[in-house]
Amino acid sequence: MIRKAIKVLIADDNREFCELLKEFINQQDDFMLVGIANNGLEALEIINQQVPDVMVLDIIMPHLDGIGVLEKISTGAVGHKPKVIMLTAFGQESITARAVELGADYYILKPFDFSVLATRMRQLADGVAVSQYISTSKPRNLDVAVTNIIHEMGVPAHIKGYHYLREAILCVINEVNLLGAVTKELYPMIAQKYQTTPSRWKGPSDMPLNWPGIAVMLK
Description:
- Its cofactor is Ca(2+).
- GO terms for molecular function: calcium ion binding; DNA-binding transcription factor activity; phosphorelay response regulator activity; transcription cis-regulatory region binding.
- It contains eight helices and seven strands, in the order E-H-E-H-E-H-E-H-E-H-H-H-H-E-E.
- It is an alpha/beta fold.
- It folds into two domains: about 5-125, Rossmann fold (3-Layer(aba) Sandwich), CATH 3.40.50.2300; about 140-215, no CATH class.
- The strands form two sheets. A five-stranded parallel sheet has the order 2-1-3-4-5, sandwiched between helices. Strands 6-7 form a two-stranded antiparallel sheet.
- The chain starts with 5 loop residues before the first strand and ends with a strand.
């Protein structure tokens, strides 16, 4: 008997990651990619239109984050509830607990092996119970993880913007609600710490950088 293809939705604002995962999924005979959303609102639209079996959902996205998407699904704002695999670069326990409370079926830390993700998607689509959380073998040092990410972005450590960005990322990780108050709370908070002004975070720059939704002047 031929198995029905598992319909998959990717919801992540990292377009490069989406393309890599798209290529992997398209190589799997039993998967069918039905959509890619780069923000939470797009994800809800695709859920209604394409009725995916499994959604791979990033925790941090613009307009509506992963937690917001789960809240909408749990309140019946969309007519279908797919199996949900949450993605994040940081294993913050409070966010993990909230995601599971709202119905996330699995939680995985970036970076991860696509083959592991594929196995979990198949298990969830088949109704197989899986452990809700995957962690690395060693405790993750948040400061080191953030520093590594910024280095991978190619941001020079000697410029002021490097320190602003690093502090902003750490603040958002510890308090996700700051993403909804970037100009009113986050900018002034960083400015006060580094004895500068919020305007240093705004305006055109020869080297603008966004993460996630935070525009930083790298001068």
